[in-house]
Each structure stands twice: as structure tokens, then as C-alpha cells.
Write a structure and sequence with these properties.
The protein has about 475 residues and is mainly α. It has helices spanning about 5-10, 20, 25-50, 60-70, 95-100, 115-120, 135-140, 145-160, 160-190, 195-200, 200-210, 215-235, 240-255, 275-300, 315-320, 325-350, 360-375, 385-415, 430-435, 440-445, 450-480, and strands spanning about 80, 85-90, 130-135.
Length: about 475
């Protein structure tokens, strides 16, 4: 693919559609047809979940909605309004909208009722503002909230209730997330079975169907991974300004969650890119992440309060400096004690972590992820072998740095000083790293006729997975929130 090609041209020339371009038989058309069918199922699932999930039942959804409302009025960052309170002036009616659903939060015995919806539906946009506390989302940049903020603007203009506006904001955020994820999957082509497998996990789909920043971030991570995978495969940018798009994507992702800044190392080994451009890309990502983190710390950061303990980052650091070996013991205790839970949440633990997914589905999901991994291994490219191994080494280092950052931040800001395990880490935090590392299988890909059947089987398994995911997700949500035991 010539570097001068446009993005749309690169999409249209994806090797998924070789059968269409060459007018081959069904065997040549199969990868493209299967992928389109799988993506269509994901679009349907996300749209359906925006409606099926009761209001404010996605992780931290009230705080995300407050942040989106703040952004819709032109305020790009929250602010600290007392020593331990952060967020900002937001619509007072949002309290009345999510209040009726508070009995449902993390209490499996309580079900969603029409009475709750009727009471919440009485809350409309009044224009009256009051300072509200949402410290976990006040520090987030505005970019990934824009679809939800647009939904809020439309809801206010149309006179919708706050709950109906929430549904609209979910839908717009979900459509944006899926558009990015679809573009990434099609651009990556046959080299992206693992990419599609991760996108089809219930955890990611539920985040796309919420007003959280995580949905669009997951979609953009898929696009960033697709650009990378094409460069690793072909040894050159797949379209004009691909490096700039990749840099912007990784910068947005890293500012939204600073531990992901470790993936700024990836551009340093991009094949077919001048060394100066590589360095500029990495420095831009690190620089923008540091700039936003500094601004957020000055404007909005507060000590995160817990009901049982007051975290103390300074004391935590002192304890670690006094006993550096504690880092190893804490890491071992955390992974051995909670690692299985992280794997469960990575696949799917919906709602406020109280909507489980059947055990058999978890086993199936890991089989599908393995199939995606093997499918990627069958897609050899033209990139020189030494460039591939450099990419692999840097990607693994970036993964380690990202994981260390996730655990480190939670240990300092959310864990009791001196505790033996890290609190607050959730499996969904690893969805973005998993997508960005979907480039690794093609980087070590093997070629040959023997891999053809492996690739075909992989795509069949991966693209059929969304047909299972959708009914399982919907049934679990219905069972948790609507159906009496």
C-alpha cells in the first residue's frame, strides 16, 4: 500500500476484500463476509445494550454523565471546590434522575421497576447548577465525552427528560465507539482476528453502550492497533498521515488514562518511518500526557476518599522506599489473590460489577481469544524480520510499563498505606492494552500453505462469537435487573 493513499482508499483495499476485487469464488469472499456479519452483530449488541441496561447502572455512570454535562456547557476540565471535593457546577436535576435507581446499585435483591423509571422521568433540564462531587471523572480530558455531550445538547434542545437524554447519549457514544472499532477492524484486514475477538468481549461492548469515556477509547485503540499492524506487516504507513493519526490516537488514549502513556514507545520502532518522525511521535504522546496530568493535578485532583480508609500517597511512597522488596511481595500477593478476578472482569462483569457472565461463556471467550491469536500468527507480511523483533520487544516493554502504571497509581491513590494487596484495579483497564498488542501475532507471523486452513478456521470462530455474545449479555442483564428470582 502506497504511503500516499488516503485512509478511505486504504480501507477499501483491505485484504479482507480481495475476493471482491478479484471476483473470486465464495472461498475468496468468505473472510470479508464473515467479518461484516460479525461487525453487524456487534453494532446490534451495542445499540440494544444502550436501551436494555437500566439508567445509571454502568460502572460509575452517574459520574461520567455529570462530566459529560459539564463538557456540554463548554467546561473542558473539572475543578476542586474544597479540600476533598472535586467536580464542578452541573445540572441539579441529574441528582433527581439517578436517585430513584440507587436501591439497585450493587444489590442483586433489588430489581429495576417502572415506578423508578416514572419517578426519574419527572426530572428535566432546569438550567439550575449546583456543585457536585465526581472526583474520579473530573480529571479526565473532554475528547472521549464529546458524543455523550452532543447527546446532552440535543436532549436539552428537544426538551427530553434527563433519563431519555441519558439513553440518547449512550447511543451516540456507542455509535462513535463502534465506528472507530469497525474502521480499525476493516483496516487491519485479515491480520486482525485478535482485534475483533477483543472487541466482541461483553465487558468492552457494555462500556461502548454507556456514557463512559472508555467506549470511544476502546474504539480508538482498535484503530491505532490497525494502523500499527498494517505498518508492521507491510513495512510502510498504510495511508497518508498515518503516523500523525497514530500519534494523535495514542496521545488521546494516554491523556485519558496516563498509564497507557507507556505505549508511546511503540512509534519508536515503526517500520518505514524516519527516525526523527518516530522520536517526535513518542515525545508528543509523552508531552501531551504530562501536560494534561499536570493541569488536572493543579485544577481538579483531590485525595480519593473511601468509607473505610483514607489513602495517603506520600506515606505509601515512604513505606516503599523503606522496604523496596515490598513492591515484589505486593505484586505477588495481588496477582495470586485477585488475578482470577481480573480475568473475569476482562471478559465481562457488567453493571456495577454485579452482573456476572456464565462460567461456560468465560471458557468460550478464552478459546475465541486463542483462535484470534492463532489467526494472527498465520498472516505473514513483508516487513523485515529485524524490524519485527524490535517491535515485539518494545511492545512487551510497553505492556509491562502500562500494567505497572495501572497497579502503581491504584496502590498510591486508592490503597490503604501498607496494605499487602492493591485495591481498585479492574479487569476492564486491560482491554486497551490487549487491543494495542493485537499487533504482536502478525509481527511473529509464519507463512505457508499450511496456515491457510488455520486462518480460515480462526475467522470462522472469531466472527461467530458475537452471535453468542449478544444473547448472553442481554439475558444476564434481564435476569439481574428485570426478572424476579
Amino acid at each position: 500500500m502506497a504511503a500516499e493513499a488516503s485512509f478511505l482508499h486504504a480501507l477499501s483495499q483491505s485484504d479482507l476484500f480481495d475476493g471482491f476485487h478479484r471476483r473470486q469464488g465464495l472461498d475468496g469472499l468468505l473472510p470479508g463476509l464473515l467479518t461484516v456479519a460479525g461487525l453487524a452483530a456487534l453494532w446490534f449488541t451495542v445499540c440494544l445494550m444502550t436501551l436494555v441496561m437500566p439508567p445509571f447502572q454502568n460502572p460509575d455512570e452517574p459520574a461520567h454523565f455529570l462530566r459529560a454535562e459539564q463538557i456540554s456547557r463548554g467546561h473542558p476540565i473539572g475543578y476542586r471546590y474544597s479540600e476533598f471535593r472535586s467536580g464542578g457546577a452541573t445540572e441539579i436535576g441529574i441528582r433527581a434522575a439517578y436517585g430513584p435507581f440507587s436501591p439497585v446499585f450493587s444489590n442483586r435483591e433489588n430489581k429495576f421497576t417502572s415506578g423508578m423509571l416514572a419517578q426519574a422521568g419527572m426530572a428535566h433540564w432546569s438550567g439550575e447548577l449546583v456543585e457536585q462531587h465526581f472526583p474520579n471523572t473530573a480529571v479526565y480530558p473532554p475528547f472521549f465525552y464529546l458524543p455523550s455531550a452532543i447527546g446532552i445538547l440535543i436532549g436539552k434542545a428537544a426538551g427530553l427528560s434527563i433519563v431519555d437524554t441519558l439513553y440518547l447519549s449512550r447511543l451516540l457514544s456507542g455509535l462513535c465507539s463502534m465506528a472507530l472499532g469497525t474502521a480499525g477492524t476493516l483496516l487491519a484486514g485479515r491480520a486482525a482476528p485478535l482485534l475483533l475477538a477483543v472487541l466482541a468481549l461483553p465487558m468492552g461492548l457494555s462500556l461502548m453502550a454507556s456514557v463512559s469515556q472508555d467506549g470511544p477509547m476502546i474504539g480508538l485503540a482498535a484503530l491505532a492497533a490497525a494502523i500499527s499492524v498494517r505498518m508492521v506487516q507491510n513495512g510502510a504507513p498504510p495511508f497518508r498521515h498515518a503516523v500523525a493519526v497514530l500519534t494523535l490516537a495514542l496521545a488521546l488514549i494516554a491523556t485519558a488514562r496516563p498509564p497507557y502513556a507507556a505505549f508511546a514507545l511503540l512509534p519508536l520502532t515503526l517500520p518505514g518511518v524516519a527516525p526523527a518522525a518516530r522520536r517526535l511521535s513518542a515525545l508528543t504522546i509523552f508531552g501531551l500526557t504530562a501536560a494534561w496530568a499536570g493541569l488536572a493535578a493543579v485544577m481538579a485532583q483531590v485525595v480519593m476518599e473511601r468509607s473505610d480508609v483514607m489513602p495517603d500517597a506520600v506515606l505509601q511512597v515512604r513505606l516503599l522506599l523503606d522496604d523496596p522488596y515490598r513492591i515484589v511481595s505486593v505484586a505477588f500477593a495481588t496477582l495470586s489473590g485477585r488475578g482470577f478476578g481480573y480475568l473475569n472482569e476482562f471478559v465481562g462483569q457488567l453493571g456495577w460489577l454485579d452482573v456476572g457472565i456464565p462460567r461456560w461463556f468465560h471458557k468460550l471467550a478464552w478459546i475465541v481469544l486463542a483462535a484470534g491469536l492463532l489467526g494472527g500468527l498465520s498472516q505473514a507480511g513483508r516487513c523485515p524480520q529485524n524490524s519485527r523483533w524490535s517491535w515485539i520487544a518494545v511492545a512487551i516493554i510497553a505492556l509491562g510499563g502500562s500494567a505497572a502504571g495501572i497497579f502503581g497509581i491504584q496502590y498510591l491513590t486508592w490503597t490503604a498505606p501498607g496494605d499487602v494487596m492493591v485495591d481498585g484495579v479492574q479487569g476492564r483497564y486491560f482491554l486497551v492494552p490487549a487491543l494495542l498488542l493485537a499487533t504482536l501475532p502478525p509481527a511473529v507471523a509464519i507463512s505457508g500453505d499450511r496456515t491457510t486452513g488455520l486462518a480460515r478456521l480462526s475467522w470462522l470462530v472469531v466472527t461467530a462469537f458475537p452471535l453468542v455474545t449478544s444473547p448472553v449479555m442481554v439475558w444476564q442483564v434481564l435476569s439481574r435487573y428485570y426478572l424476579q428470582s
